[in-house]
Design brief:
Blueprint lengths: L1 E4 L8 E4 L15 H7 L31 E4 L16 E4 L15 E2 L2 H4 L1
Antiparallel strand pairs: 1-2, 3-4, 3-5
Length: 118
């Protein structure tokens, strides 16, 4: 899986990238955390890689829509064990993308103003 840690060491803040819509150079399936990592050839050799470096990074595509009407927020998948945290709507995705395989079937699916919830 491809997790992006968003805080300093010891502070448990991270984002699991579950899927991506390839814009260049990737033809393999990218809709699922394991498939995404495999398609991008990211494995344990990248553990601890700084995303501000030149080895691996996240970039905004040249053609980027500022229209946020297609963004949705739902509860996360597979964390029923997490009590109150399982009900947090921390799964954010592009509802218009064909690379989100289960968004419309996810319990709690609804449109949400992402700008206020992130």
């Amino acid at each position: 899986c491809l997790n992006v840690v968003t805080r300093e060491a010891g502070v448990p803040h991270a984002v699991l990238l579950r899927a991506a819509e390839p814009v260049q150079g990737i033809r393999a399936s990218t809709w699922g955390p394991g498939l995404l990592a495999r398609a991008m050839q990211v494995d344990t050799r990248f553990t601890g890689t700084d995303l501000c470096g030149s080895r691996l990074w996240i970039a905004r595509p040249a053609q980027w829509s500022t229209d946020r009407n297609h963004l949705r927020s739902t509860t996360r998948i597979g964390i029923d064990y997490a009590g109150v945290w399982a009900r947090r709507r921390w799964r954010i995705f592009d509802a218009a993308s064909p690379y989100v395989s289960t968004a419309r079937r996810t319990p709690g699916f609804r449109k949400r103003n992402i700008a206020r919830s992130v």
